[in-house]
Design a protein that fits this description.
The protein contains eight helices and nine strands. It is α/β, with parallel strands linked by helices and 240 residues long. It has one domain: Alpha-Beta Complex (Spore Coat Polysaccharide Biosynthesis Protein SpsA, Chain A). The strands form two sheets. The protein has a seven-stranded mixed beta sheet with strand order 3-2-1-4-7-5-8, with helices on both faces. α2 links the parallel β2 and β3. It starts with 6 loop residues before the first strand and ends with a helix. The relative contact order is 0.17. It binds guanosine-5'-triphosphate (GTP) and magnesium ion (MG). Guanosine-5'-triphosphate binds next to β1, β2 and α3.
Length: 240
Amino acid sequence: MSGGTNVQFSIILPTYNEAKNIAKLIPQLEEVIRKNELDAEIVVVDDNSPDGTANVAKRLNEKYGNIRVLLREKKEGIGAAVRDAYNFAKGDVLLSMDADLQLKATDIMKLLRYIPEYDMVIGSKYLEPAKYQKISIISKIRYLISKYGNRYLGVVTRTPFKDYSLNFRALKREVWQAIEPEDKRNFFFVEMIVQAYRKGFKIKEVAVEFKERSRGESKTRIWQQMGVFLLKGLMYAFKK
Ligand SMILES: Nc1nc2c(ncn2[C@@H]2O[C@H](COP(=O)(O)OP(=O)(O)OP(=O)(O)O)[C@@H](O)[C@H]2O)c(=O)[nH]1
Ligand SMILES: [Mg+2]
């Protein structure tokens, strides 16, 4: 595992066909970095998106100079992509977030302000006063399934959190070095929390804003994901 640390923060964006979204999100993040005088890089981990996401990131780097692209050969899942990016990143603190504009760029400060007091800070859609926008009926159904699915995960893994799978979290490099989440898709994020908690790291959950996806296509199949979470969650009830 590489461990060069010449920046303080690495902001990691997994992408698959998010060209238009990162063209908006990255300037917003750069603004947060500038205003808060963060010593930060942005890592875009792209699975060879046909819409040219990686090229958009490279072009933005000509302007900002702190963006690195980790290009992977094929789409393998968000967990696999984030894992590679954590290893590729140079920061002492690793912060990953979705690139689809459902999260708010300025909310990264809500996470970072609890570091170094906490080892890991997780963004949450279900902790009050989170703002979870649900306009369509589909998103209301997804909200309910996901909310109660997360309660189930808390019970079976015997850990005290409300949102286990949101890709919006900051952790110290030492936490990443101590855990070994295996899943290639979203369950990776659940494993991270449960393993870090069981290792005794201090974890803080904070409420964040979450909007409906307005552009691009969702890559998550909710029913399939629910089945995976039920089974893999249960495995963690027995696993060390
Ligand atoms: N590199 C990479 N990124 C991915 C992959 N799957 C999803 N992503 C990215 O991970 C983030 C979250 O994916 P989404 O499809 O929005 O998943 P979701 O947020 O659970 O689903 P929605 O609520 O419908 O948006 C986005 O930035 C995606 O582009 C993948 O296989 N590889
Ligand atoms: Mg999304």
